[in-house]
Amino acid sequence: VTGVQTCALPILSVSQDHNLQSGAYTIAPVSGSIVSPTTWVEGTTKGLGFTLVSTNATAIPAAWSSGNAYAAFPVSSTTFYTRTGYSGGNTDTLTMRVKLDVASSQQAASYSNTVTWVGTTTP
Predict the structure, then answer these.
(1) Phi, psi dihedrals of residue 100, rounded to the nearest 5°
(2) Contact, 30 vs 122, CB < 8 A?
(3) pTM for this entry
(4) I want to staple 20 with a disulfide (CB 3.0 to 4.6 A). Which of 58, 67, 76, 111 is the partner?
């Protein structure tokens, strides 16, 4: 077959193993989800979350509010971005932010978890 082009479409997904934790203490995630991110209000929004800010490829969905709406990291791998269309051989760049805020009553400690980012290309 002649004249057939193939392209790889990146799919990005994310998951975490558990909420931020230090012994018996935890930090809850933000209330938003990948399907429905929540607007971050400085000084009011509490928890850990991430947002999509910009890309040079497929437009960021409006629900992300140009990087002002945040989602919790899900516990199972969940797709949060899919590029559509042929890249023309160009590199895709996706800008993201991770944010954390807690109440002043939060126990001071060293909190941790593992966040896994997965990029997959499909023909």
Answers:
(1) -145, 135
(2) no
(3) 0.86
(4) 111
